[in-house]
Specification:
With 329 residues, this protein is an alpha/beta fold. The chain folds into 2 domains: 11-53 and 152-325, 3-Layer(aba) Sandwich (Rossmann fold); 56-146, Rossmann fold (3-Layer(aba) Sandwich), CATH 3.40.50. Helices cover 44% and strands 15% of the residues. The protein has 13 helices and 10 strands. The protein has helices at 11-21, 55-64, 68-71, 82-94, 108-116, 128-142, 153-169, 184-196, 212-219, 242-251, 260-272, 280-293, 319-325, and strands at 30-32, 40-45, 75-78, 98-102, 120-123, 145-146, 173-179, 201-207, 254-258, 305-310. The strands form 2 sheets. The protein has a 6-stranded mixed β-sheet with strand order 1-2-10-7-8-9, with helices on both faces. Strands 5-4-3-6 form a 4-stranded parallel β-sheet, sandwiched between helices. Strand 3 (75-78), helix 4 (82-94) and strand 4 form a beta-alpha-beta unit. Helix 1 (11-21) packs across helix 2. The chain is globular and about 55 Å long.
Length: 329
């Protein structure tokens, strides 16, 4: 899947980001998962991250680099939830105002999380395009600094710190499975890992109902889906970023898609078997791996350790019970 895309974040940029976020974000653990005796599988537990997801890494790295005079006016972003909370937390640390534009369908726990961190919540539409347009309008009207959710080098460098930690903690690393929404997380991880360990395979996972990166790779350029739908609410941008698409084209070995039933089953498996509370968007990687190991998803797994990135854990206490009763269509 290698292309001629001009997309490189130097490893040094992620190393600098790691220093910036050191006293804010957690170095999250790799937890062994009891899947197959023949396979060494570890979960990169970003569900245990402060604010409940990996997003704090990119958000804080970005806000820390805004000119202090401009930052004082406040920041704004658009998000289905996890980036919203990360921006709110980062703004709180810097003692500046934060506004987040969220979809009218945003999970209550994510709305309440951002609000509890002091953010002003603005609701707009149901798609990432709706939210972006409203956020840009509000930023222009109020003089706020935009903190993009994924398509910016500072964001990508911050998310790349996940890759640095995996490389440090896993010496026999063979492949990493990464959730794909807008593409910031996989862009950061892939860029860092491939520059340090080019033999490690990077596999992206996105929901069948929101396969915007798959469609874009087929087209050869970023495309916008007319409709997205999945229980993985954090992976529903209608299109990848221009920058993140180029990173994926250059650095990522494969993108696979996974159905909602498998995502549901993986979320419940993590809760019951691994005792890990993970949101559906974070469980897509395990869903894909389980299908790979039972032969229902064709891909080549290299010998060595496999890391599945569990990107977040912002779910309500009722969700596992709701999922166990519901069979996605």
């Amino acid at each position: 899947m290698r292309g001629d895309a001009d997309a490189v974040t130097p490893v040094e940029a992620s190393e600098a980001a790691a220093r910036r976020i050191k006293n804010v974000a957690r170095w999250t653990p790799l937890v062994p998962l009891p899947i197959d005796r023949q396979l060494a599988v570890y979960a990169k537990c970003e569900n245990l991250q402060v604010s409940g997801a990996f997003k704090i890494r990119g958000a804080f790295n970005f806000i820390a680099q805004i000119d202090p005079v401009e930052r004082r006016c406040g920041v704004i972003t658009y998000s289905s939830g996890n980036h919203a909370q990360a921006v709110a937390m980062s703004a709180q640390i810097f003692q500046v105002p934060a506004v987040v534009v969220m979809p009218v369908t945003a999970p209550k726990i994510k709305v309440e999380g951002a609000r509890a961190l002091g953010a002003e919540i603005v609701f707009e539409g149901t798609t990432s395009a709706d939210r972006k347009a409203r956020a840009e309008a509000e930023a222009g009207k109020r003089g706020l600094q935009m903190v993009p959710p994924f398509d910016h080098p500072w964001i990508i460098a911050g998310q790349g710190t996940v890759g640095l930690e995996i490389l440090s903690d896993c010496s026999e690393l063979a492949q990493i499975l990464v959730p794909v929404g807008g593409g910031g997380l996989i862009a950061g991880i892939a860029s860092v890992v491939k520059q340090r360990r080019p033999e490690v395979r990077i596999i992206g996972v996105e929901p069948e109902g929101a396969a915007k990166m798959t469609a874009s790779l087929v087209a050869g350029h970023p495309v916008a889906l007319e409709r997205v739908a999945s229980i993985a609410d954090g992976l529903l941008p209608v299109s990848p970023g221009n920058l993140t698409f180029n990173y994926v084209k250059r650095w990522v070995d494969e993108i696979v898609t996974i159905d909602d039933r498998a995502i549901r089953d993986a979320t419940l498996w993590l809760c019951s078997r691994a005792k890990l509370v993970v949101e559906t968007s974070g469980a897509v990687t395990l869903a894909a791996l389980l299908k790979m190991t039972n032969g229902n998803l064709k891909t080549d797994l290299s010998s060595g350790s496999t890391v599945v990135v569990l990107s977040g854990g912002n779910i309500s206490l009722e969700l596992p019970k709701d999922l166990s009763r519901r069979v996605p269509g």
